[in-house]
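Researcher: Next entry in the queue.
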Amino acid sequence: MSLKDNKKVYFGNKKVTQLEKEEGVQQIFSKVAKNYDLMNDIMSLGMHRLWKRIFVQKAGLEKNSLVLDLAAGTGDITKIILDESRTSKVVLCDQNAEMVAKAKDRAVNEGFINNVTFEIASAEKLPFKNNQFNKIFISFGFRNFSNKEQSLRELLRVLKPKGTLNILEFSKVKNEVLSKVYDIYSKTLIPKIGNFISNDAGSYQYLVDSIDTHEDQEGLKFMMENSGFRDVSYENLFDGIVSIHIGKK
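Model: Structure for this entry, 249 residues:
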């Protein structure tokens, strides 16, 4: 039995093996693929659109960059990247085939297909050369990786020297009142709304629980530093409902 089979990680609020988490995440995102964009609106009260725009703008894209959009979902970040830097090229990568298929359809329908290539791969084993990308973006996907440390090592490997990893993720709210309000909304209403929309309260419950068990701001900063990233910093948005982490190779 391999280490991946043995080591326990959080899948929602339960401890499972890394392999079980990988398989569970695949099943959940296959279920929610049809309503993925609506799911993001529910999880963030529609604010994910603004947060993603801020996320990309703060990365400071340069002309002719080669960018990896990892755990890319249906391609929101890729579209913003190409809006911000029309000379850049993006590799859109997700481990879920249904998500990548939806991203391809969206890229065709919304006119940003020309500068995009598509890959199906997990973060723990990326099919890319060393020192390939100027920037890597992960938006609301890092907490779903089955082996975060291995994923960070892979991300460091495929980044060019001085390239940056940019992570946007739900985090720990710093304002006590806001924390309580969001806690009530996320734990009480999100699964019910998910059940109403797609008859799938369980998947939405996982997504809520996965926020609770994800590392806080300092925890993720430490993890990135421990994996070899330099000059790691983070910035809270909406008092820490989400945070942007940036680390340099």
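Model: The beta strands are 8-11, 14-17, 66-70, 89-94, 116-120, 133-139, 159-170, 230-237, 242-248.
Researcher: Noted, moving on.
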